[in-house]
Amino acid sequence: MEVRIFESKPVLAAAAAVEASGLIRAAIAATGHARLIAATGAAQFEFLEALAKMPGIDWSRTEFFHLDEYIGLPVSHPASFRRFLTERIIDRVHPGAFHLIDGEAADPHAECARLGALITSAPIDLAFVGIGENGHLAFNDPPADFTTETPYLVVQLDERCRRQQLGEGWFPRLEDVPTRAVSMSVRQVLKTTRIIAIVPDRRKAEAVQQCLELEVSVWRPSSALRWHTATTLYLDRASSSLLSRPMDA
Fold it and tell me: Is the pLDDT score of 14 beyond 70?
């Protein structure tokens, strides 16, 4: 894993967008298309805005997959990740395909199977991910399942994860935050050729420090990114503030 630290969130976002756009263009040049995984959440705002403005990407040759989605939350809800991705990617750049998770599917396990068949049909070139305040990767809260090969899972959301969603302003009350979600599994994320992790803000500093400096553990799900040799972790001064040996970009 390569760790890069930037002075501010906007500078981080711009640098990550440059790397991401180069990898997307390279994948399209090599195979005619790029298969991508997109993350959601407040940490991704500036990055996705910068990426959408990058020149020279034939977005019609991209195919996107969705990391996670709440179960039972309508797409019209402000916290819906389908809504987030539609507004910030689909309606902005018009990718060739975007396989959204239907959190309102009658059978979430069948929805996992549907998506699993699609994502395993060919290699994934690039994933954009984040790290949760509780160290989660996608919606794999601790203790995460590091062994399952199933691409998508129905998972329970722990209270700290749900409080993060409340703190980011997506929900008015904790009891309004769903308790279950569909999430890409940790092993499926790690099967991606290249991973870019976007992790700004002081509220992520403890999770960043633990994931980088403590042992890889199911209790720190994002620490599994250290097993992936082609991951770049983008931090700002705030999110890297607790590291014992910070490295500069």
Answer: yes
The CA-to-CA distance between both ends of the chain, in Å, stands at 14
* 128 Cβ contact list (under 8 Å, min separation 6): 20, 36, 37, 38, 39, 44, 47, 196, 198
Task: Identify which of 171, 170, 175, 146 has the alpha carbon closest to the alpha carbon of residue 159.
Answer: 175
Let me know: does 204 contact 126? Beta carbons within 8 Å: no
Find, among 43, 239, 212, 213, the residue nearest to 128 by Cα. Answer: 43
Write the pLDDT tens digit of every residue in 198-239: 999 999 999 999 999 999 999 999 999 999 999 999 999 999
How many Å apart are CA 239 and CA 98, to the nearest integer?
30
Report, as an integer, the average pLDDT of 62-68. Answer: 96
Q: Is 139 helix (H, G, I), strand (E, B) or coil?
A: coil
Domains recognised in the chain with CATH numbers: 2-236 (3.40.50.1360)
Q: pLDDT tens-digit profile of 35-61? A: 999 998 888 999 999 999 999 999 999
Q: How many beta carbons lie within 10 A of that of residue 98, not counting itself?
A: 18
88: DSSP letter: I
Which DSSP helix (H) or strand (E) runs through 189? helix 186-190
Dump strand ranges (E) for the chain: 2-6, 34-38, 62-66, 68-70, 97-99, 126-129, 152-156, 180-184, 194-199, 231-236
